[in-house]
Amino acid sequence: MVRAKVWILKKHFEGFPTHSNFELQEVELPALKNGEVLLESVFFSVDPYMRIYSKLYMKEGEAMIGSQVAKVLESKNAAYPVGAFAVSNSGWKSHFISDGKGLLLMFPSWPEKLPRSLALGTIGMPGLTAYFGLFEICRMKPGETVLINAAAGAVGTAAGQIAKIHGCKVVGCAGSDEKVAYLKSIGFDEAFNYKTVSLKEALQKASPDGYDCYFDNVGGEFSSVVLEQMKTFGRIAVCGAISLYNDVVPQKGPYVQTHMILKQLCMEGFVFSRWENRREEGLKQLLKWVEEGKIKCHEHITEGFFNMPAAFMGMLKGENIGKAIVKA
Amino acid sequence: MVRAKVWILKKHFEGFPTHSNFELQEVELPALKNGEVLLESVFFSVDPYMRIYSKLYMKEGEAMIGSQVAKVLESKNAAYPVGAFAVSNSGWKSHFISDGKGLLLMFPSWPEKLPRSLALGTIGMPGLTAYFGLFEICRMKPGETVLINAAAGAVGTAAGQIAKIHGCKVVGCAGSDEKVAYLKSIGFDEAFNYKTVSLKEALQKASPDGYDCYFDNVGGEFSSVVLEQMKTFGRIAVCGAISLYNDVVPQKGPYVQTHMILKQLCMEGFVFSRWENRREEGLKQLLKWVEEGKIKCHEHITEGFFNMPAAFMGMLKGENIGKAIVKA
């Protein structure tokens, strides 16, 4: 018998999350049926989407949503042998039973030298988000200028490096000088701390001609300023809106339509799962770039399943550089 | 010697235009040089874009921008014989001299029974705007539901009928019961007066499943309500933002990003001139549909060049059904 630890959403978030929103429970897992596997979570992902999806798709008392890298402990399913690693979307659970549905085996050829946690970051959802957002939504072309905000985050660091590989000029914004230094170290052409500058002036200085592509992880007021700096026929990939997720009263800002018309801008919201049928293509390309050293990966690792809520809140506060991971 | 009457933008608009923004002047036109033609304006167009473009592209003291159907009175250019009709973008001028640049001869086969003013409406810029906006920006597909606001205007009436021809369900909003009755008479499946209903409830009632395409002529608060009623992967063609053009202090509203992401919406601003190389294709198709009776054209005609400002302001107030035209 295995007792699983599970982080429950005790109470829906109201404003910025606090420890009182979560509760740690223990659940006894039943014996395996045929076709099932028992897994132990090894690495967890904490991501901004959890803040907004919880409100839309979860009930209080349910396990927090989220994905993990997990190891098969017991198996009654030949497709998932004991010792295999898989990526799963099973929530904040130390152990769980799966019938294999939605369980994605990690590449058997996963390189020894790469931590498996990257399957939750650059070689996982955040990397795919950057990849499809830039190629399919921004439709970036070599020589164009790409703006990325929350650039030091999991998606932003991947996006900036992918845009560089593709021959774009890349401008990144982040919220601390340490992050800005990191962005420059991984090849961003320009980077600045939006908290210590006039955003408008910094954007103009970093690219006086404006921006062809804007990979938006922030939304809100930040995006209103960027809109004025877009070039005609600019493309905006709306990936996240972290500046809005914790609103109790929705913020307001200037309407977008006049700028959209005058510059003939295209703004599109997207979720990486739209390209589910190209997941393998994306992951293989990302893995290749990482192995070739063309994409550098930084992880912000919090130790201990017990610290999941703290890691989640820290990520929302922007404490991480690169991917925020919890090591079980 | 011809003396041309010219409406000047005396003072930039500040809020809603008034008569004091305009001044009528007379200008003596010089003798024609080789390659030039003298034209007399026959029909003028008044359009919402003039309100916003004036601020961006005009100086005080210049002739108001705008297009006309004009007749060649004298010619030293064989391409434009005396008596020919052309569409020009020469501003609010009773007469003007052209070297032929930007002068578009009307189809020699223009049907006798159709007023030439349609070249400023359904078989002109507004019709092309509707055509390219629906096919290229909304990428409408037969069976989809298309929402159009300011639907009784020049662009809206064309858009609704084109969407019907393409096999869509069409919902239109307008600002009077008379306009709503007109929309129903030309085939809109659903139409309502947004001034006398709850917009949200009316949109839900007209299409409980939501909207695939939104052809937006209004922007602002209206669009914020529509955003919530879009289907996943909905497309928004931002053609105009008449609710915002007269702002002295920019209005504010909820940010769009969260909806854009969760429903993976695509919003794109556009101007018909993007498809300049397909103008003839578009005009021929529109003319064909009009001749076949598949598109009905309504014009709101103001008599007299002297009344240009009044016609312009009336159009901005929504006094017209169909295309607002001034007959010189």
**Beta-strand residue fraction of chain A:** 25-35%
Ends distance of chain A: 20 Å
Quantity of strands of chain A, as a count? 16
CATH hierarchy: architecture of the largest domain in chain A: Alpha-Beta Complex
Q: What's the gist of this structure?
A:
The structure is a homodimer of 328-residue chains. Chain A is an alpha/beta fold and 328 residues long.
Account of the 3D structure:
2 copies of one chain form a homodimer. Chain A is an alpha/beta fold and 328 residues long. Chain A folds into 2 domains: 2-121 and 298-327, Quinone Oxidoreductase, Chain A, domain 1 (Alpha-Beta Complex), CATH 3.90.180.10; 125-273, NAD(P)-binding Rossmann-like Domain (Rossmann fold, 3-Layer(aba) Sandwich), CATH 3.40.50.720. Chain A is built from 9 helices and 16 strands. Chain A has helices at residues 49-57, 125-137, 154-165, 177-185, 199-206, 220-227, 257-262, 279-291, 308-317; strands spanning 2-9, 22-29, 37-45, 68-75, 85-88, 95-98, 104-105, 145-148, 169-174, 190-193, 211-216, 230-238, 252-254, 266-269, 299-303, 323-327. In chain A, strands 3, 4, 5, 6, 7, 15 and 16 form a 7-stranded mixed beta sheet that branches. Chain A has a 6-stranded parallel beta sheet with strand order 10-9-8-11-12-14, sandwiched between helices. A two-stranded antiparallel sheet of chain A has the order 1-2. In chain A, helix 3 links the parallel strand 8 (145-148) and strand 9. The first copy, chain A, starts with a strand and ends with a strand. The mean pLDDT of chain A is 97.
